[in-house]
Write a structure and sequence with these properties.
Length: 482
């Protein structure tokens, strides 16, 4: 049984527990505390009490804590790989990628306390000096997701903490250990002061009560949410009433455009990785490929062969690339969308069926525009890739952006200038020229436009997690008009 982490202590739940299942075997993985509003209030109070000391801690002291946490993450690699496989169905390729990024982000953030914290502004008033300083806000509440659980949880709370805020997180009900509780173990071992980082877990039906505490607590200044745009709308409406700032990392319908001068082999590699990493359950996975007609047949044949070579099975096996989908709902969604496309006359290139929750990487072509999986209105959160041939690159660019999302995009071309010119016209938070839609690094600011969200990760999140303080000091008597 796993309990909350509040004020530096593993705290007994005041309510009942909820089960977390292994997505492959469906066996009980862990019982976790089903948190209540009271638990959340205690966590927010602890974070608020810890804020001033944390915000004013010397940069070197804070740096030492982050560096120590990075070392612990690396030391625990094997254990974390096993955890992410058993709780979330992550392959070793995906979990080690997350561990590397997490350690890198901790080490980068460790130095931010030494960066310049503001500016001096010249004043027109004789004897007045004006400074503008970045200040942390207070408590940042975070919703951490189940998919890229380990890394995305760090991204949710570590960035605000690096700028001097304290945090309370509510991990996903589907993977609460890899999206929050294991981080509490790491930060506790590293010696982070009590209250700076708190975790309250919840049963699915308890989510709204916890969120309500975040919205109604004056100490909570920002809510950092990673999840679906559907839930973000509910939370955003509530945030509007509370006048709370939200940072939103939502979904995507991420296109790849393969221009007629692209290297076909490179494009096949980029799309295989971009579309099928973590079984297509990441917001940055490639959902649709627009490929120049002259390359289409060679591209599809090569992609089919590469995708069919990916080993499927229990992700605890280090050679497995494709593990299970997170639950039956995810399997049902992709199955329904594949059926919808095929019923409308699409061609199945590969996949299209599951063995339990092991859904085969699936590729469809000749998909009619009214099929759900190709319209771009809603992402299919699983291993389903749509391919469409194009004759006119302008038309491909227009279609690729005909979606309410705008998270990431990929352009494959032999002509860098052509790629950059097209990238410049993409209405998307991220565009990779000659790289997959998934090309994360800790230092690169991830975030979307349109329905993909607001805010950026990495150092640029300073805009989201701090506020500017204007301070003036005068050395001469004031000259007042009355
Ligand atoms: P996903 O489908 O990826 O799990 P969701 O957007 O459904 O994404 O959920 C993300 C987070 O939002 C979860 O932690 C869940 O508990 C929370 N959540 C879902 N619905 C609500 C709600 N009505 N109020 C508050 N939190 C919610």
């Amino acid at each position: 049984m796993r309990t909350h982490f509040i004020n530096g202590e593993w705290t007994d739940a005041s309510g009942p527990t909820f089960p977390v299942y292994n997505p492959l075997s469906d066996e009980l993985f862990e019982e976790c505390a089903a948190g209540t509003a009271a638990d959340t209030e205690a966590a927010v109070a602890a974070a608020a009490a810890a804020f001033h000391a944390w915000a004013s801690m010397a940069p070197g002291a804070r740096q030492a804590l982050f560096l120590k946490a990075a070392d612990i993450v690396e030391r625990r690699t094997e254990e974390l790989v096993t955890l992410m496989a058993a709780e979330g169905g992550a392959s070793r390729a995906f979990s080690t990628f997350q561990i590397r990024l997490s350690a890198a982000m901790l080490r980068q953030a460790a130095g931010w306390g030494y960066l310049p914290q503001g500016d001096v502004i010249l004043s027109d008033t004789p004897g007045r000096t004006a400074t503008v300083t970045r200040k942390p806000l207070g408590v940042v509440a975070g919703f951490t997701p189940w998919n890229g659980a380990f890394y995305l949880a760090w991204r949710t709370f570590l960035l605000p903490m690096a700028f001097g805020n304290t945090t309370v997180i509510k991990p996903s009900e589907l993977a609460p250990i890899s999206s929050g509780l294991v981080h509490a173990e790491i930060l506790a071992e590293a010696g982070f002061p009590a209250g700076t980082f708190n975790v309250v877990t919840n049963a699915p039906e308890g989510a709204a009560a916890i969120a309500e505490v975040f919205f109604s607590s004056p100490a909570v200044r920002v809510i950092n949410f990673t999840g679906s745009d559907k839930t973000a709308r509910i939370l955003g409406e509530r945030a509007g009433r509370a006048l709370k700032r939200m940072v939103l990392e939502l979904g995507g319908f991420n296109p790849a455009i393969i221009l007629d001068d692209a290297d076909v082999e490179e494009s096949i590699k980029a799309v295989t990785f971009g579309a099928f990493l973590h079984q297509g359950q990441v917001c940055m996975n490639t959902r649709k490929v627009y490929v120049a007609r002259s390359l289409h047949d060679a591209f599809v044949a090569g992609l089919k062969a590469r995708v069919e070579s990916l080993k499927i099975g229990d992700p605890i096996d280090p050679t497995v690339i494709i593990g299970p989908l997170i639950n039956d709902r995810a399997v049902a969604q992709i199955a329904a969308r594949v059926k919808d496309a095929l019923d409308r006359g699409a061609t199945l290139v590969t996949g299209g069926y599951a063995d339990g929750r092991l859904y085969r990487p699936t590729i469809v072509t000749n998909v009619p525009a009214d099929a759900i999986c190709t319209s771009g209105a809603d992402e299919t959160f699983g291993p389903l890739l749509v391919i469409e041939a194009f004759d006119d690159a302008e038309e491909a660019l227009r279609k690729a952006q005909d979606t309410p999302y705008g998270l990431t995009a990929s352009i494959m071309t032999g002509d860098r200038a052509r790629g950059l010119a097209m990238a410049d016209r993409f209405d998307s938070g991220i565009v990779h020229v000659n790289g997959p839609t998934m090309a994360s690094e800790a230092a690169l600011p991830v975030g979307g436009v349109k329905n993909s969200g607001w805010g950026r990760s990495g150092y640029y999140s300073i805009e989201d997690f701090t506020e500017l303080r204007l301070t003036t000091v005068s050395t001469e008597p004031g000259r007042y008009p009355f």
